[in-house]
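Hi everyone, sorry if this is the wrong subforum. Our group has a chain we'd like a structural model of before ordering constructs, and none of us has done structure prediction before. Sequence below.
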Amino acid sequence: MRWRILTLLFLARVGMGLQFQTLASVGDSLIVAFALDYASLGLLIGLFMAPGLILALPAGYLGRLVSDRQMAVLGLMALALGGLISALASGSTGIGVGRVIAGTGFLIINLYFTKMVADWFEGREIATAMSILVMSWPFGIAMGQVGHAWLAEIYGWRVPFQIASAYCLLAAAGVFFFYRSPKDLPATKPGVAARLTRQEWMLVFCAGGAWGVFNAAYVTYLSFGPKVLEDLGQTAIAAAGVISVGSWVMIGSGAVCGQIIDRFGRRNLVLTVCMTGAGIALWLLSYPGAGLAASLLFGLVGMAPAGVIMAMAGLALRPEVRAFGMGLFFTIYHAIMLATPPAAGAILDATGQPQGPIWLAIVLFASVIPFAVAFNFFKEGPNMVTKKTIRS
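Answer:
Right subforum, don't worry. Here is the predicted structure as C-alpha coordinates:
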Protein backbone atom coordinates (compact mmCIF):
# COMPACT_ATOMS: atom_id res chain seq x y z
CA MET A 1 0.00 0.00 0.00
CA ARG A 2 2.76 2.47 0.92
CA TRP A 3 4.35 2.19 -2.54
CA ARG A 4 1.02 2.94 -4.23
CA ILE A 5 0.66 5.99 -1.99
CA LEU A 6 4.19 7.06 -2.88
CA THR A 7 3.37 6.75 -6.61
CA LEU A 8 0.28 8.92 -6.15
CA LEU A 9 2.22 11.59 -4.25
CA PHE A 10 5.05 11.52 -6.78
CA LEU A 11 2.68 12.15 -9.70
CA ALA A 12 0.82 14.90 -7.83
CA ARG A 13 4.03 16.62 -6.73
CA VAL A 14 5.26 16.81 -10.34
CA GLY A 15 2.88 19.76 -10.68
CA MET A 16 4.98 21.69 -8.18
CA GLY A 17 8.07 21.60 -10.42
CA LEU A 18 6.01 22.16 -13.55
CA GLN A 19 4.47 25.35 -12.12
CA PHE A 20 7.74 26.62 -10.64
CA GLN A 21 9.60 26.30 -13.95
CA THR A 22 7.09 28.41 -15.88
CA LEU A 23 8.72 31.73 -15.05
CA ALA A 24 12.31 30.64 -15.68
CA SER A 25 11.28 29.16 -19.05
CA VAL A 26 9.48 32.31 -20.24
CA GLY A 27 11.85 34.75 -18.56
CA ASP A 28 13.30 36.21 -21.76
CA SER A 29 9.79 36.90 -23.08
CA LEU A 30 8.88 38.68 -19.83
CA ILE A 31 12.06 40.78 -19.95
CA VAL A 32 11.04 42.00 -23.41
CA ALA A 33 7.34 42.39 -22.60
CA PHE A 34 7.73 44.27 -19.31
CA ALA A 35 11.24 45.83 -19.60
CA LEU A 36 12.66 43.84 -16.68
CA ASP A 37 16.30 43.33 -15.72
CA TYR A 38 17.70 40.02 -14.47
CA ALA A 39 17.53 41.05 -10.81
CA SER A 40 13.80 41.73 -11.24
CA LEU A 41 13.35 38.41 -12.99
CA GLY A 42 15.19 36.72 -10.14
CA LEU A 43 12.88 38.44 -7.67
CA LEU A 44 9.82 37.08 -9.50
CA ILE A 45 11.35 33.60 -9.40
CA GLY A 46 12.13 34.02 -5.70
CA LEU A 47 8.61 35.23 -4.84
CA PHE A 48 7.53 31.63 -5.25
CA MET A 49 9.36 31.01 -1.96
CA ALA A 50 8.18 34.12 -0.09
CA PRO A 51 5.07 32.62 1.61
CA GLY A 52 7.22 30.02 3.31
CA LEU A 53 8.82 32.66 5.53
CA ILE A 54 5.48 33.62 7.05
CA LEU A 55 3.22 30.62 6.58
CA ALA A 56 5.40 27.53 7.15
CA LEU A 57 4.92 27.44 10.93
CA PRO A 58 1.15 28.22 10.80
CA ALA A 59 0.77 25.58 8.09
CA GLY A 60 2.52 23.10 10.37
CA TYR A 61 0.13 23.95 13.22
CA LEU A 62 -2.87 23.50 10.94
CA GLY A 63 -1.93 19.85 10.67
CA ARG A 64 -3.35 19.40 14.18
CA LEU A 65 -6.79 20.60 13.03
CA VAL A 66 -7.05 19.58 9.36
CA SER A 67 -6.23 16.25 7.72
CA ASP A 68 -3.09 15.81 5.62
CA ARG A 69 -5.22 15.01 2.58
CA GLN A 70 -7.24 18.24 2.90
CA MET A 71 -4.10 20.33 3.28
CA ALA A 72 -2.48 18.66 0.25
CA VAL A 73 -5.55 19.31 -1.92
CA LEU A 74 -5.63 22.93 -0.74
CA GLY A 75 -1.97 23.32 -1.69
CA LEU A 76 -2.45 21.92 -5.18
CA MET A 77 -5.46 24.18 -5.79
CA ALA A 78 -3.47 27.25 -4.66
CA LEU A 79 -0.67 26.23 -7.00
CA ALA A 80 -3.17 26.06 -9.87
CA LEU A 81 -4.83 29.38 -8.97
CA GLY A 82 -1.50 31.21 -8.79
CA GLY A 83 -0.53 29.99 -12.24
CA LEU A 84 -3.83 31.14 -13.70
CA ILE A 85 -3.43 34.60 -12.16
CA SER A 86 0.07 34.90 -13.66
CA ALA A 87 -1.27 33.78 -17.04
CA LEU A 88 -3.88 36.59 -16.99
CA ALA A 89 -1.49 39.28 -15.72
CA SER A 90 -0.96 42.50 -17.66
CA GLY A 91 2.28 43.40 -15.88
CA SER A 92 5.01 42.15 -13.60
CA THR A 93 2.96 43.00 -10.49
CA GLY A 94 0.19 40.62 -11.52
CA ILE A 95 2.72 37.91 -12.25
CA GLY A 96 4.23 38.50 -8.81
CA VAL A 97 0.83 38.14 -7.11
CA GLY A 98 0.29 34.87 -8.95
CA ARG A 99 3.73 33.64 -7.91
CA VAL A 100 3.01 34.39 -4.25
CA ILE A 101 -0.31 32.49 -4.35
CA ALA A 102 1.31 29.58 -6.19
CA GLY A 103 4.17 29.72 -3.68
CA THR A 104 1.66 29.28 -0.85
CA GLY A 105 0.53 26.06 -2.52
CA PHE A 106 4.15 25.06 -3.04
CA LEU A 107 4.80 25.45 0.69
CA ILE A 108 1.77 23.40 1.72
CA ILE A 109 2.52 20.62 -0.77
CA ASN A 110 6.18 20.46 0.22
CA LEU A 111 5.38 20.33 3.91
CA TYR A 112 2.53 17.83 3.87
CA PHE A 113 3.79 15.53 1.13
CA THR A 114 7.06 15.20 3.03
CA LYS A 115 5.16 14.47 6.24
CA MET A 116 2.90 11.96 4.51
CA VAL A 117 5.85 9.98 3.14
CA ALA A 118 7.63 10.13 6.50
CA ASP A 119 4.46 8.78 8.16
CA TRP A 120 4.18 5.90 5.68
CA PHE A 121 7.88 4.96 5.60
CA GLU A 122 9.15 5.67 9.11
CA GLY A 123 11.71 3.02 10.03
CA ARG A 124 11.63 1.33 6.62
CA GLU A 125 13.32 2.52 3.41
CA ILE A 126 12.77 6.18 4.29
CA ALA A 127 15.83 7.44 2.35
CA THR A 128 14.69 5.54 -0.75
CA ALA A 129 11.11 6.78 -0.40
CA MET A 130 12.18 10.40 0.12
CA SER A 131 14.57 10.12 -2.82
CA ILE A 132 11.71 9.02 -5.06
CA LEU A 133 9.40 11.73 -3.72
CA VAL A 134 11.83 14.61 -4.18
CA MET A 135 12.65 13.47 -7.71
CA SER A 136 9.13 14.57 -8.67
CA TRP A 137 10.38 18.17 -8.34
CA PRO A 138 13.16 17.87 -10.98
CA PHE A 139 10.90 15.64 -13.08
CA GLY A 140 8.33 18.45 -13.24
CA ILE A 141 11.06 21.00 -13.86
CA ALA A 142 12.56 18.91 -16.68
CA MET A 143 9.12 18.62 -18.29
CA GLY A 144 8.82 22.39 -18.01
CA GLN A 145 12.30 23.11 -19.37
CA VAL A 146 11.48 21.34 -22.61
CA GLY A 147 7.70 21.80 -22.84
CA HIS A 148 7.35 25.36 -21.55
CA ALA A 149 10.05 26.73 -23.87
CA TRP A 150 8.36 25.07 -26.85
CA LEU A 151 4.87 26.23 -25.85
CA ALA A 152 6.04 29.79 -25.21
CA GLU A 153 7.75 30.00 -28.59
CA ILE A 154 4.66 28.79 -30.48
CA TYR A 155 1.73 30.06 -28.39
CA GLY A 156 3.16 32.82 -26.21
CA TRP A 157 4.33 33.10 -22.61
CA ARG A 158 0.88 32.74 -20.99
CA VAL A 159 0.19 29.18 -22.16
CA PRO A 160 2.85 27.43 -19.99
CA PHE A 161 1.20 28.88 -16.87
CA GLN A 162 -2.18 27.59 -18.02
CA ILE A 163 -0.91 24.07 -18.79
CA ALA A 164 0.84 23.81 -15.42
CA SER A 165 -2.32 24.95 -13.63
CA ALA A 166 -4.44 22.33 -15.41
CA TYR A 167 -2.03 19.61 -14.28
CA CYS A 168 -2.21 20.83 -10.67
CA LEU A 169 -6.03 20.70 -10.70
CA LEU A 170 -5.94 17.09 -11.95
CA ALA A 171 -3.41 16.25 -9.23
CA ALA A 172 -5.68 17.78 -6.56
CA ALA A 173 -8.53 15.53 -7.70
CA GLY A 174 -6.25 12.49 -7.61
CA VAL A 175 -5.10 13.14 -4.03
CA PHE A 176 -8.64 13.89 -2.85
CA PHE A 177 -10.06 10.63 -4.15
CA PHE A 178 -7.18 8.19 -3.63
CA TYR A 179 -4.97 9.23 -0.69
CA ARG A 180 -5.33 7.37 2.64
CA SER A 181 -3.40 7.94 5.88
CA PRO A 182 -1.56 5.05 7.57
CA LYS A 183 -3.58 3.41 10.35
CA ASP A 184 -0.79 3.07 12.91
CA LEU A 185 0.10 6.76 13.45
CA PRO A 186 0.35 7.95 17.08
CA ALA A 187 -2.70 10.00 18.00
CA THR A 188 -2.27 13.76 18.39
CA LYS A 189 -4.28 15.38 21.17
CA PRO A 190 -6.24 18.45 20.00
CA GLY A 191 -5.41 21.69 21.75
CA VAL A 192 -2.04 20.52 23.07
CA ALA A 193 0.88 22.65 21.87
CA ALA A 194 3.52 20.86 19.83
CA ARG A 195 6.82 20.49 21.62
CA LEU A 196 10.23 19.86 20.16
CA THR A 197 13.15 18.65 22.20
CA ARG A 198 16.32 20.73 22.19
CA GLN A 199 17.90 18.06 20.00
CA GLU A 200 15.03 18.26 17.51
CA TRP A 201 15.38 22.04 17.22
CA MET A 202 19.07 21.71 16.35
CA LEU A 203 18.52 18.81 13.96
CA VAL A 204 15.73 20.62 12.10
CA PHE A 205 17.91 23.72 11.76
CA CYS A 206 20.74 21.66 10.23
CA ALA A 207 18.42 19.67 7.96
CA GLY A 208 16.58 22.82 6.80
CA GLY A 209 19.84 24.61 6.11
CA ALA A 210 21.20 21.71 4.08
CA TRP A 211 17.98 21.38 2.09
CA GLY A 212 17.81 25.14 1.53
CA VAL A 213 21.32 25.64 0.14
CA PHE A 214 21.07 22.46 -1.94
CA ASN A 215 17.85 23.57 -3.64
CA ALA A 216 19.00 27.19 -3.96
CA ALA A 217 22.06 25.94 -5.87
CA TYR A 218 19.86 23.74 -8.08
CA VAL A 219 17.45 26.57 -8.91
CA THR A 220 20.39 28.86 -9.72
CA TYR A 221 21.70 26.21 -12.11
CA LEU A 222 18.28 25.83 -13.75
CA SER A 223 17.74 29.57 -14.08
CA PHE A 224 21.19 30.64 -15.28
CA GLY A 225 22.80 27.48 -16.67
CA PRO A 226 21.05 27.94 -20.04
CA LYS A 227 22.51 31.46 -20.24
CA VAL A 228 26.02 30.01 -20.00
CA LEU A 229 25.34 27.70 -22.95
CA GLU A 230 23.63 30.47 -24.95
CA ASP A 231 26.73 32.60 -24.37
CA LEU A 232 28.71 29.79 -26.01
CA GLY A 233 26.50 29.97 -29.13
CA GLN A 234 23.63 27.54 -28.48
CA THR A 235 20.00 28.47 -29.15
CA ALA A 236 17.68 29.01 -26.19
CA ILE A 237 15.74 25.76 -26.82
CA ALA A 238 18.92 23.72 -27.34
CA ALA A 239 20.44 25.14 -24.15
CA ALA A 240 17.29 24.36 -22.18
CA GLY A 241 17.36 20.81 -23.53
CA VAL A 242 20.98 20.26 -22.46
CA ILE A 243 20.37 21.65 -18.97
CA SER A 244 17.25 19.50 -18.61
CA VAL A 245 19.31 16.32 -19.13
CA GLY A 246 20.61 16.62 -15.56
CA SER A 247 17.06 16.77 -14.20
CA TRP A 248 15.99 13.68 -16.17
CA VAL A 249 19.04 11.67 -15.12
CA MET A 250 18.76 12.52 -11.43
CA ILE A 251 15.37 10.81 -11.23
CA GLY A 252 17.15 7.45 -11.51
CA SER A 253 20.34 8.35 -9.66
CA GLY A 254 18.35 9.73 -6.72
CA ALA A 255 16.56 6.43 -6.15
CA VAL A 256 19.87 4.54 -6.36
CA CYS A 257 21.50 6.92 -3.88
CA GLY A 258 18.61 6.43 -1.44
CA GLN A 259 19.05 2.66 -1.68
CA ILE A 260 22.78 2.99 -0.95
CA ILE A 261 22.12 5.01 2.20
CA ASP A 262 19.34 2.67 3.40
CA ARG A 263 21.61 -0.36 2.95
CA PHE A 264 25.07 0.91 3.91
CA GLY A 265 24.74 4.29 5.67
CA ARG A 266 27.76 6.64 5.39
CA ARG A 267 25.56 9.66 4.60
CA ASN A 268 28.28 12.28 5.04
CA LEU A 269 30.76 10.45 2.80
CA VAL A 270 28.14 10.15 0.06
CA LEU A 271 27.21 13.82 0.39
CA THR A 272 30.86 14.91 0.19
CA VAL A 273 31.43 12.90 -2.99
CA CYS A 274 28.21 14.15 -4.57
CA MET A 275 28.70 17.82 -3.72
CA THR A 276 32.24 17.64 -5.11
CA GLY A 277 30.77 16.17 -8.30
CA ALA A 278 28.20 18.99 -8.46
CA GLY A 279 30.93 21.60 -8.19
CA ILE A 280 33.01 19.99 -10.94
CA ALA A 281 29.95 19.74 -13.20
CA LEU A 282 29.12 23.43 -12.81
CA TRP A 283 32.76 24.37 -13.39
CA LEU A 284 32.77 22.36 -16.66
CA LEU A 285 29.59 24.02 -17.90
CA SER A 286 31.40 27.08 -19.27
CA TYR A 287 33.81 25.07 -21.42
CA PRO A 288 32.86 24.82 -25.13
CA GLY A 289 31.50 21.38 -26.01
CA ALA A 290 31.33 20.23 -22.37
CA GLY A 291 27.71 21.17 -21.67
CA LEU A 292 26.17 17.72 -22.13
CA ALA A 293 28.91 15.97 -20.13
CA ALA A 294 28.54 18.55 -17.36
CA SER A 295 24.77 18.08 -17.26
CA LEU A 296 25.13 14.28 -17.12
CA LEU A 297 27.66 14.50 -14.28
CA PHE A 298 25.42 16.96 -12.49
CA GLY A 299 22.41 14.64 -12.66
CA LEU A 300 24.20 11.36 -12.04
CA VAL A 301 26.30 12.52 -9.09
CA GLY A 302 25.64 16.09 -8.01
CA MET A 303 21.88 15.86 -7.53
CA ALA A 304 21.69 12.19 -6.54
CA PRO A 305 21.48 12.79 -2.76
CA ALA A 306 18.40 15.05 -2.86
CA GLY A 307 16.22 12.51 -1.08
CA VAL A 308 18.98 11.66 1.37
CA ILE A 309 19.05 15.29 2.48
CA MET A 310 15.25 15.50 2.67
CA ALA A 311 15.18 12.30 4.75
CA MET A 312 17.18 14.12 7.42
CA ALA A 313 14.02 16.05 8.31
CA GLY A 314 12.10 12.82 8.89
CA LEU A 315 14.95 11.43 10.99
CA ALA A 316 15.02 14.58 13.12
CA LEU A 317 11.39 14.47 14.31
CA ARG A 318 9.01 12.23 16.24
CA PRO A 319 5.66 11.55 14.51
CA GLU A 320 3.62 13.55 17.03
CA VAL A 321 5.58 16.76 16.36
CA ARG A 322 6.31 16.13 12.70
CA ALA A 323 3.83 18.64 11.21
CA PHE A 324 5.10 21.54 13.33
CA GLY A 325 8.72 20.46 12.90
CA MET A 326 8.27 20.37 9.14
CA GLY A 327 6.92 23.91 9.35
CA LEU A 328 10.17 25.01 11.01
CA PHE A 329 12.20 23.02 8.46
CA PHE A 330 10.49 24.74 5.54
CA THR A 331 10.76 28.20 7.13
CA ILE A 332 14.54 27.84 7.01
CA TYR A 333 14.39 26.38 3.50
CA HIS A 334 12.19 29.17 2.15
CA ALA A 335 14.34 31.91 3.69
CA ILE A 336 17.36 30.63 1.76
CA MET A 337 15.37 30.04 -1.41
CA LEU A 338 13.82 33.52 -1.35
CA ALA A 339 17.17 35.29 -1.05
CA THR A 340 19.14 33.34 -3.64
CA PRO A 341 17.49 34.09 -7.06
CA PRO A 342 17.64 37.91 -6.68
CA ALA A 343 21.25 37.61 -5.52
CA ALA A 344 22.11 35.46 -8.53
CA GLY A 345 20.36 37.90 -10.88
CA ALA A 346 22.20 40.84 -9.31
CA ILE A 347 25.52 39.04 -9.84
CA LEU A 348 24.68 38.63 -13.54
CA ASP A 349 23.64 42.29 -13.85
CA ALA A 350 26.84 43.45 -12.11
CA THR A 351 29.31 41.20 -13.94
CA GLY A 352 27.59 40.69 -17.28
CA GLN A 353 28.93 37.13 -17.12
CA PRO A 354 26.46 34.20 -17.08
CA GLN A 355 29.05 32.15 -15.21
CA GLY A 356 28.83 34.52 -12.22
CA PRO A 357 25.63 33.02 -10.75
CA ILE A 358 27.02 29.53 -11.40
CA TRP A 359 29.92 30.25 -9.02
CA LEU A 360 27.32 31.17 -6.40
CA ALA A 361 25.70 27.77 -6.99
CA ILE A 362 29.06 26.03 -6.47
CA VAL A 363 29.47 27.74 -3.09
CA LEU A 364 25.94 26.78 -2.08
CA PHE A 365 26.48 23.12 -2.98
CA ALA A 366 29.68 23.09 -0.90
CA SER A 367 27.71 24.47 2.07
CA VAL A 368 25.64 21.27 2.26
CA ILE A 369 28.57 19.40 3.81
CA PRO A 370 29.00 21.42 7.04
CA PHE A 371 25.24 21.31 7.63
CA ALA A 372 25.30 17.51 7.28
CA VAL A 373 28.29 17.18 9.61
CA ALA A 374 26.52 19.32 12.20
CA PHE A 375 23.38 17.18 11.85
CA ASN A 376 25.37 14.05 12.71
CA PHE A 377 27.00 15.81 15.65
CA PHE A 378 23.68 16.82 17.19
CA LYS A 379 22.09 13.46 16.37
CA GLU A 380 24.80 11.44 18.10
CA GLY A 381 26.72 13.93 20.27
CA PRO A 382 26.93 13.23 24.00
CA ASN A 383 25.88 16.77 24.89
CA MET A 384 22.43 16.18 23.36
CA VAL A 385 21.41 13.18 25.42
CA THR A 386 19.02 15.19 27.56
CA LYS A 387 15.42 15.54 26.41
CA LYS A 388 14.75 18.99 27.73
CA THR A 389 11.87 20.44 25.77
CA ILE A 390 11.29 23.93 24.49
CA ARG A 391 7.76 25.17 23.99
CA SER A 392 7.26 26.03 20.35
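For your construct planning: Residues 198-231 form the longest helix (34 residues). Confidence is low (pLDDT under 50) at residues 382-392.
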